[in-house]
Amino acid sequence: MTKQAVEDLYLPFKPKRRTRAQIAREAGLEPLADALLTDPLFDS
């Protein structure tokens, strides 16, 4: 196999870049964001 063929096989399993949104979701901030989008005057 060539290096390119191996990389093509690995591509679907390669970790993707983490966005700020993904990091915020992992930190548990999604419920807060949903509440703020639903009611901008939300005060927790």
Give an overview in words.
- The protein has three helices and no strands.
- It is mainly α and 44 residues long.
- It has one domain (3-38).
- The longest helix has 9 residues, at 30-38.
- It is rod-shaped and about 60 Å long.
Major sheet size, sense and barrel closure: none
User: Over all CA atoms, what is the radius of gyration?
Assistant: 19 Å
Q: Write the H/E string, N to C.
A: HHH
Count of β-strands: 0
Helical content stands at 40-55%
Approximate strand percentage: under 5%
What's the helix count? 3
Number of domains as seen in the coordinates: 1
Class based on secondary structure composition and strand pairing: mainly alpha
The parts where pLDDT drops under 50 for at least 5 residues are none
Could you tell me how far the N terminus lies from the C terminus, measured between alpha carbons in angstroms? 57 Å
Shape: rod-shaped
Mean pLDDT: 89
Short description:
This protein has helices at 3-10, 20-26, 30-38.
